[in-house]
Amino acid sequence: MSNLVLDVKNLDVTYPAAGFGKKPFKALHNINIQVGQAETLGLVGESGSGKTTLGRAILGLAPVSAGTIEFLGKDISHATRKDRRALSRDLQVVFQDPYTSLNPSMEIGQILAEPLQIQGLGEAEAKRRIAELLDQVGLPSDALNRLPREFSGGQRQRVAIARALALSPKLIVCDEPVSALDLTTQARILDLFLQIQKDTGVSYLFVSHDLDVVRHISHRVAVMYKGEIVEQGPSAQVTVNPTHPYTQRLLMASPVPDPDRQEKRRVERKHLLEQQARELQSQG
């Protein structure tokens, strides 16, 4: 893939033993993913599959025990704290809960100014950039003097997205950024992500447990199960006609609005589980 932004090769993440006599815990094993310029890779899996751990490893928040993480052609697997501060210009994150990710005692203008000031922008330039950001995420200019608690969940997530965009990053790790929102607000925020990517060329690693969400926003999808990538490919293929049994189960578990289709999907999922159980017994 040309114009690579992120290239993860043979990545392992192992946490030290939690107590005396216990073994270290390998959270990720032999992970290989790539994200190109202006591309979205959807990372999907159930809770505990390791998808958030992968995002944290890329951000330097989880211990890399083997393999490499290359960002813009540079190995950042074991980047120092100083290196990470420099990386923040090009590598950002949007977390799941927009309220806890924002300082409740700071006004929105202060929240958006903080990363700009750290990077040394002057006051006039910072004000101009903040006005651009508010417009970009669809927030009114009077939001600057308000606190996070004065906004709805969707509006707070727009603030979090604006903060991530402040330094015009090349990649944003989106860790379940719409799972705490209602369905209507989810759709609006997903459309906002798509429009921002179209306007700026930013890349996303989009972490979610919801196949419908990653289908809507992703160019390619990687499916995680028990710390490994079990299936990877174009979004239309993986989210509609998956080949791996685990992805098939995820698809069958995804609700649909039509009651008849939902009942059919429930029956199909039951048959799939029974078939896989028989195969496991025959192998044993």
Tell me about this structure.
With 284 residues, the protein is α/β, with parallel strands linked by helices. The protein folds into two domains: 150 residues, P-loop containing nucleotide triphosphate hydrolases (Rossmann fold, 3-Layer(aba) Sandwich); 66 residues, no CATH class. It is 41% helix and 24% strand. The chain has a six-stranded mixed β-sheet, with helices on both faces. It is globular.
Terminal Cα span = 40 Å
Number of strands: 10
Biggest sheet architecture: 6 strands, mixed
Helix % is 40-55%
Tell me the CATH superfamily of the largest domain.
Answer: P-loop containing nucleotide triphosphate hydrolases
Spatial ordering of strands, largest sheet: 6-7-8-3-9-10
CATH topology of the largest domain: Rossmann fold
**Number of discrete domains:** 2
The chain-level mean pLDDT equals 87
What are the low-pLDDT stretches, counting only 5+ consecutive residues below 50?
A: none
CATH domain class of the largest domain: Alpha Beta
Helix/strand-derived class?
alpha/beta
Over all CA atoms, what is the radius of gyration? 20 Å
User: Which percent range describes the beta-strand content?
Assistant: 15-25%
Number of helices: 10
CATH architecture of the largest domain: 3-Layer(aba) Sandwich
Give the overall shape, derived from the CA principal axes: globular
**Helix-strand string:** EEEHEEHEHHHEHEHEEHHH
